[in-house]
């Protein structure tokens, strides 16, 4: 974590010491890179592309990001409506249940009712 003197502004970085036969070196990975010379956020991956589960999990990323974007659109001023992590988790479960119910309903075959 780094901060700027006199400002209430902090940024978080991942600092990794990489062992190397020619001498260990330290890499700072930042999700806040501002130009191409800086390290980019796509380098910070919890599951590397060589992992056997990467393809399955990476394919679900768009669904998770879409769900998070929909949830954020329901928040007033990007703030949770509940105080405390337990209440926020309950709100998240409720939103997920609503989201899944709507998608389940959309997948049902339509029935034509004769008038």
Poorly predicted regions are none
List the helices and strands in order. Answer: EEEEHHH
Describe the oligomeric state of these chains in a short phrase.
Answer: single chain
Mean pLDDT: 77
Overall SS class:
alpha+beta
- What is the makeup of the main sheet? 2 strands, antiparallel
Gross geometry: extended
Distance between the termini: 67 Å
The number of helical runs is 3
- Spatial extent as radius of gyration: 22 Å
What's the number of structural domains?
Answer: 2
The helix fraction, in percent, is: 25-40%
Q: Number of DSSP strands? A: 4
Q: Brief overview, please?
A:
The protein is α+β, with helices and mostly antiparallel strands. The chain is built from three helices and four strands, in the order ββββααα.
What does this protein look like?
The protein has 115 residues and is α+β, with helices and mostly antiparallel strands. It has 2 domains: 2-43, no CATH class; 54-107, no CATH class. The chain is 37% helix and 12% strand. The protein contains 3 helices and 4 strands. The strands form 2 sheets. A two-stranded antiparallel ribbon has the order 1-2. A hairpin with a 6-residue loop joins strand 1 and strand 2. The radius of gyration is 22 Å and the shape is extended. The N and C termini lie far apart (67 Å). The mean pLDDT is 77.
């Amino acid at each position: 974590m780094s901060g700027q003197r006199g400002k209430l502004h902090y940024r978080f970085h991942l600092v990794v010491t990489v062992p190397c036969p020619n001498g260990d070196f330290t890499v700072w990975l930042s999700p806040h890179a501002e130009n191409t010379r800086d390290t980019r956020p796509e380098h910070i991956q919890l599951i590397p592309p060589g992992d056997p589960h990467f393809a399955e999990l990476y394919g679900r990323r768009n669904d998770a990001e879409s769900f998070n974007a929909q949830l954020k659109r329901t928040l007033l001023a990007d703030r949770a409506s509940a105080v405390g992590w337990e209440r926020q988790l309950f709100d998240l479960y409720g939103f997920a249940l609503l989201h899944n119910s709507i998608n389940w309903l959309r997948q049902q075959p339509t029935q034509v009712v004769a008038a």
